[in-house]
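Hello Y.,

Per our agreement to keep a running log of every chain we model this quarter, I'm adding this entry. I've kept the format consistent with earlier entries: sequence first, then predicted structure.
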Amino acid sequence: MAKRICLPILLTIILFLPKISQAASGVVINEIMIKPESGQSEWIELFNMGDSPISLDGYWLDDDDTLMVSGAVQKGSEDPGSDPKALSGEIQGKQYKAVTFSSYLNDTGDVPTLFSVVENNESKLDSYSYTDNPGVNVTYGRIPDGAGDWQKCSPTYEAPNANCQDNSPQSQTSQEDLNENLDTTTLVSKSPTPSSNKTSTSPKPSPQKSPTSQKSQVLGQKQQVQPQTSTQTGSSPSPSLTPQTQEDTNKSPTKLKLAAIFAGSGLTLIGATTAGYLWYHRRRSQSNQNQ
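Predicted structure for the entry above:
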């Protein structure tokens, strides 16, 4: 009876525990340079989320989500530059490794994908699909590294991602509203003011600032600050991260904690099951000896 209970539990743990652990470790795509400055190389940055070194032998990078055809890595296309790229070497725990290309990623859209191949069996480890390039010397990167959402970033070659801009629809809508307000404020500030009568000797009351004028000053200050931000980052003015993005960022460490809890629970269950089986076997042996 104990064997019938223990064996299904052990099989379940063996099959699903590696998948739970993989969520908190492994190599992923972390940053992509699609359109570098003139004379510079394109690159795809990998990040090892685990603590131990990982060999990249058997790993491949491709610009679409299909690596193997008829049991073999597809090569020899009409454009050899678009063939899959075999990786080698080793990437240390919590470290970065960039793979450079002369001309590999399309400006109009691609699906950079990371594969591993073992005994002619491919596994898709990670991918990112884009439909246009983010701009010259601007990358797509994850915030936080390895597990966060993809955003437009300033290049950080083999280093933690930083100076990133949220790509969510809510952020883009906020930026459009801000630009519309700036245009409206500019028209209001350029409207002519009535001239004073030179022959009048009576004092005139000083005009008070209307709410529209105050709003114009505040938006004018925003308009002055934004070009400074653009100069520092080397890209278009970026809005601040929305609360939704910060919430998503906070969720990533939680996912890692949950993965660790599941892994620990699985190991505890293995120990408890093994101990129960040994106890049952010992009692049964003692019962046979008494008989």
